[in-house]
Amino acid sequence: MDNTLANLYELSEIVDKRFSHGEDIPQNIIETIRSTVSGKGFIGLAQINPIAGNIEYNAKKIAKYIKYACKINLDLIVFPELALMGYPIEDTIDRHPVIVDENVKWLKGLAKITTNTTALVGFIEPREKNAEGKKYFNSVAILKSGKIQGIVRKSLLPNYSEFNDYRYIEPSPAVGVQPAETLGVFGKDKIKNCSKIFENYGISICEDCWNNKEFFDKHLYEKDPIEELAQENPQIFINCSASPTRAKKEQLKHNMLSFIARKYNTPIVYVNQVGAIDNSSFDGSSRVFGADGELIARAKSFEEQLLIVNPQQKIGKIYPLTKGLDKSLNEQKIFTLEYESDLERTYKTIIQGISDYFKKCGFKRAVLGLSGGLDSTVCAVLLADAIGEKNVYGISMPSKITSKESRSDAEELAHNLGINFTEASIRPMIDTTDECLNKLFAEVEQKWDGRYKTSFTPDNIQARSRAMFLWGISNEFSSCIPIATSDKSELYMGYATINGDMSGGFAPIADVPKTKLFAFARWLNKNRPKKNAIPEAIILKKPGAELAIDPKTGKPLIAEDALMPYEFLDEIIWRIENKNDGYQSLINTEFVYEKHNPITREQKIEWLDKFFRRMSTALYKWSILPPSVIVESRSINKYDYRQPITSSKINYKGVNDDYIKTTLTSD
Amino acid sequence: MDNTLANLYELSEIVDKRFSHGEDIPQNIIETIRSTVSGKGFIGLAQINPIAGNIEYNAKKIAKYIKYACKINLDLIVFPELALMGYPIEDTIDRHPVIVDENVKWLKGLAKITTNTTALVGFIEPREKNAEGKKYFNSVAILKSGKIQGIVRKSLLPNYSEFNDYRYIEPSPAVGVQPAETLGVFGKDKIKNCSKIFENYGISICEDCWNNKEFFDKHLYEKDPIEELAQENPQIFINCSASPTRAKKEQLKHNMLSFIARKYNTPIVYVNQVGAIDNSSFDGSSRVFGADGELIARAKSFEEQLLIVNPQQKIGKIYPLTKGLDKSLNEQKIFTLEYESDLERTYKTIIQGISDYFKKCGFKRAVLGLSGGLDSTVCAVLLADAIGEKNVYGISMPSKITSKESRSDAEELAHNLGINFTEASIRPMIDTTDECLNKLFAEVEQKWDGRYKTSFTPDNIQARSRAMFLWGISNEFSSCIPIATSDKSELYMGYATINGDMSGGFAPIADVPKTKLFAFARWLNKNRPKKNAIPEAIILKKPGAELAIDPKTGKPLIAEDALMPYEFLDEIIWRIENKNDGYQSLINTEFVYEKHNPITREQKIEWLDKFFRRMSTALYKWSILPPSVIVESRSINKYDYRQPITSSKINYKGVNDDYIKTTLTSD
């Protein structure tokens, strides 16, 4: 890279920093960059972090970038899918159409501030009232010289996992550009016979480039918009996207984009949204591939950035990808306890998830219980990093079961992190509640049978008393929410207390399995600026809620004794989520756990039966889980996975044909 | 109706009753019915109540009906959409494909028990592994003479409100019947050029008949499967359906089916699922229209039934429709406080919702707090009716704010209902919690500013202490869940305590607005066998949570003083949900409330601003709301309406063009 170009990226980083602090860009920087890029085929990849439905906020941000792009005279500046609205916006546009009107008004305003630089801005396009199909298109407007020059509309609408496009969006019957006058009135009967490309750009939206018939074995859609665009020989493909980190492994995306560029001998520019909207965390990592399929440029992951590239001159900069985003394609096919390669991605995904949830909702502070256990520990570290240690309050809330070590571990952790810490015993509350409830239970028992001989009631009272403290603080102090510390493995087992540890304003690790949390804790100790903030004792101790005494040992109950080994549990979860394995294939194939812990078939069956039984009755808990961050390739997040709670009687084992015959023919 | 036919319906009711009790049908009844219907063009409409994913349960139920239909030698017996799987099944089929395998196996078993009678059985049809598009079809199998004779697949896939078909179902490229050998291997390239109709039946599935181009002004889809079927002149249209009561008003359905019959001069047989699956309550009310569009037969609402009809001989029986299902088409266009006409439907929808949730999940008993207020009162009545009064425990949990009247009203209600009742003071818990928390707050305040001068903390502690009692009972006694008593108006305003009154295993009235609850209470008093179970005082008192004292009055705070008049509030909600009204049109059009309570524009603005502000911050609460019953035409149920929580900064008022211009052009 010659000096001018090195300079371009150095100066651009200063520009990014100034943008993020809301500062003006010094004139001399603008001049220098302009002299390098003006009118020479440079394109800006503006990966921005929008707020869902906050049109003014998004429009102002877009305007800032457009004005700058015009000043330095870029040929083109590209924003992500639905940049004006934020993606996903879900049913909001249907119930509150005012935001659709607003996004069109602001779009027209944005058009007016463009000069020679073309800007591609994603927006929700309303359709004519009685048009056939859904009410909206997912569109990109081409803005230039003070006007809307054309509209591109999304043809392929994902409707799996967290995606719901088809709920409210009509698939576009036309690929590529249609004239500006079709805005708001476009439909199958209004397709203009015009060029699909604009100034040599072949423009598409997200899923539109995910259906290459050669690259993929399985095709969700019939149409391949890129193939259609390619017929008109654009000089550059542009794809405006909003793709969360987990939806597809990066390597798949990389290979696919590279394949498309090479196949059509055409560079491709891919611009992805960054930031989190509720449960979905978008990684940015926008990039450009040359006509030979080679990666020319890649923006940062998990940060807003305007990356300037020149696809035809092969000018760009490849920023390092967050480790874990680049997982290889076959890596997800076998369960492994080697989480190392995915932990940086896990970390940044959750940090962004927390910090954007707080910022976008207007929260500043978090309070959580510190039990001295792994779950609350990892949550505390993540919160300290996401919202600042002074904004985190850790409360140790010992009961009579809580060990001295748990208390001192919690305190040491808080000290290491620099978060606020105090201790508040729940014993008076437990005592009073127990007394009140025992009286009440005796009363109830006079009319009702079925009182359990041994129950989880005392365990739950402890967990709920703690939540009462945390919600109390959140009610008493402004801009503060309590944190739900449940992890994925335990949520699968319903091993979490309603209105207790699974309750909170946000659940940072609800999609992180326990075995990964152990690796994660070690990774945090190694990779954070302040090393070893997590006391080794916390990582070494066997997880247990310290809510009950195990009658067999006389010591606090160990979770694995109540459930099953986490290594075994996490493999079941992984195989169900990633390979759709059922009961029979789980029984009949060897687990990683079995390689070094030989177990009998009876033991395996006992654990599997327990798993399916507990999972079936955990469905209700999944449905009331607080907002969380989707991390793994599949989750139990209610906006990602839906199963009727009343389906708890599913027979996951299946039956054989003889059984069916006998059952149906008997009278 | 001649004697034989009157006899047919009398005997059929005995059959229905025996089926519902799991009893055998006496041979003489079978003989009598058989002699009337055998081989004469009679059709059975089998509206059954399936359990989602419980294939064996559903298959056994279907088998029972098929065997009976064969014995009496019906020409045809028709089951609802996805009868073997239950509708909706959602993502379950994707994550747990074993249930799809099972539903195919049981389907084949069912085919084997058929004789001369044709049976139409809905099921999920898996597709070939690499087939283009989604993995499944939503299909109906035609079973006869021991074999699958053909398959019909759904073409139009609803994806609005609670419907999610397109998430996992591929729209069928072919209308009508395809040969049995296409089972599991059908696709666009496998369409057989065969007759679309089977033995003169033109068969379709649910949404397939909802796109008539003449009847509807707005069309969601291009295709009209009924029009295609009509080309082959079937003698009877059959539609297998699963349509919850609220999705479309009955009158619309009635008019549409009648229109189709008349237009094509062909009778139509419509079979609807009955029962509730989680939040969706299906009403059954299956029916038949003659070739002239006249209603010939209608099954009961909210009950399993096998209704025998003869569309061509115009033989049928019209059971009374639950009042409210027949609301006229224009009734929904204007907000009204006249709820009377809809209350029977409301009642049955919720009763079925509660009772099926309990049955299908295996719960038997419910415990709820009785405050002496309207919400908990109506919940108690509904629970007593849905699961039996002895299975309900009402607990009065007074605090120091609770009035003597509230306590005696609660007790009187419990007595009138015959439910179990006891009183348990929360004062010791409040005192202990307050003491613990005050200490803790003082501690926290040393590090954190922003402590509220007046907070809701004490109010919330009361609500949470009560929930602690209720969850305690649910933990201690088998098969028991606590009930969340929040109503729709208050949920809109976020006027419900997290882990308090909005917490529970089920929320019966979460979709009933407050003004409707008043009318509902009066209706219950008038229409239940035991009259006036609800003390008049409960209906007359102004709602208030009795959690805090109003400093202005020195008495417990009245909710309307904290919020706004319920009549005004409910009209905003209704207009937003039903007419997509925005802030500006709400300001500029007269409310029903204003007709008899003149208010200033400032007052109106104050209320509207409060509404939009509170609704924006209630989104989190909506996301963790327990399972409930969707009652109204729109709801905030998370499986029906989705809005990102981080969209709380939406500007519902919009801005004008000048503001946009100034904002975007300023530097």
Describe the structure concisely for a colleague.
The structure is a homodimer of 667-residue chains. By secondary structure, chain A is of the alpha/beta class. In chain A, 38% of the residues lie in helices and 13% in strands.
Q: Largest interface by residue count?
A: A-B, 146 and 147 residues
> Which percent range fits the helix content of chain A?
25-40%
Parts with pLDDT < 50 across at least 5 consecutive residues of chain A = none
Global shape of chain A: globular
* Oligomer description: homodimer
Order the strands across the largest sheet of chain A as they lie in space. 6-5-4-3-2-1-14
User: Strand pairing plus helix content of chain A: what structural class?
Assistant: alpha/beta
Measured on Cα atoms, how large is the radius of gyration of chain A?
27 Å
Strand residue percentage of chain A? 5-15%
Distance between the termini of chain A: 82 Å
Description:
The structure is a homodimer of 667-residue chains. The first copy, chain A, is α/β, with parallel strands linked by helices. Helices cover 38% and strands 13% of the residues of chain A. The longest helix of chain A has 20 residues, at 457-476. Chain A starts with a helix and ends with a helix. The mean pLDDT of chain A is 95.
